[in-house]
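Z., the sequence and structure:
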Amino acid sequence: MNGPMNRRAFLSNSGLLLGGAMLPASAPGKAATVSKDPHDYVVAEGHRDIWELTARLRLRVASQNSPLADFLVPRLIAGGVSVCIMPSGGDSLPERSGIQPALEGNLRTLDMLLEGIERTNGKASIIKTKSDVPTRPNKGKVQFILDMEGGEALGTLCGPEPEFLAGYQLALLRQFFRLGVRGIQLTHNGRNQLADGVGGGRMGGRLSPFGVEVVKEMNRLGMMVGVSHLCVNGVLHVAEITKQPIVSTHQNLSQYVSSNPPVELIPEEVKAIVSTGGVVGMRYDVGVTPYSLIADEIEFLAKNVGVEHIGIAWLGHDVGNPDPHYVPGYTHPKKVFTGHEAETMYQHWSQFIEILAERGFTEQQIGLILGGNYLRIWKQVLPD
């Protein structure tokens, strides 16, 4: 596996080597003095549920009809987020409720995102190639990595196109690639034609033959392979066959978060992801993972696998959308929110940077955790 050499080359080219040596995987030292402004970093949000967008559209009110351009993009830019990994299907409210089948739901969600990006007048764009990946913080704009949350839409009602020769079984995958999708989580919680999600039990089975072919084709095309919500044996199987790093964009560690089994990662999964050169993204969950606990997880990973394998999924709902189904000014009855849900995205990221600095992480290490590790993977995986 050529991952470690690629990581060194990326860090060297990005000026992220300390004293000519790889950033240490050992524990951070004493509290560091760093910039607490997220605009000074290339912040890459690992996973943002699209429920706010669909919740606003469901209101059928003209003022809410362009939720990405009018509401989300301005807040991401103000918050200092340079790149957002955005589900482009699989997790919208209509799909979750069964109103839309997988393929239709994915296409409608993708259209909503692409239409919304066009309406931003250049303030938002999608990353398709290595050259699109930012090398410095975005100022006044945000980029999106389109990432399907589950591969249900890649098959058909009768299976993965069994009447065609093997290559044509992957036609839908290639069509999504042509539309700009650059990442796919193989499953959501349920089982699909690729693999078992964690909804059927933590361990599950290995990938189906179709799932194996999907991973291989994603490697060939230049797509990020995601394993969040995939069962344990599925994660281990992906790590065996992939030729590129894999990512878990939004799961926590089972030894720290025991209230949500079997969703969280067990040590064997972390080891498998890291063996490919991949990234594990920690996520905030209100009432479950306070920022201090996420920082504990990050410290643990830094000591055991190295800072170059850590990312952040997201830091919670903000004051502009304090709850998945709550649209300020429209949702009734009115509710008073406190804590992180009453703060801005800028406050979220500023606070977390300060916490990491207090834990002894250096400026360079914080840069990797906030987004540099994802940048390295995209520079390695995406097409030229």
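The first helix runs from residue 3 to 13. The beta strands are 43-45, 81-87, 124-126, 142-149, 181-185, 224-226, 246-248, 279-283, 310-314.

Let me know what you think.
H.
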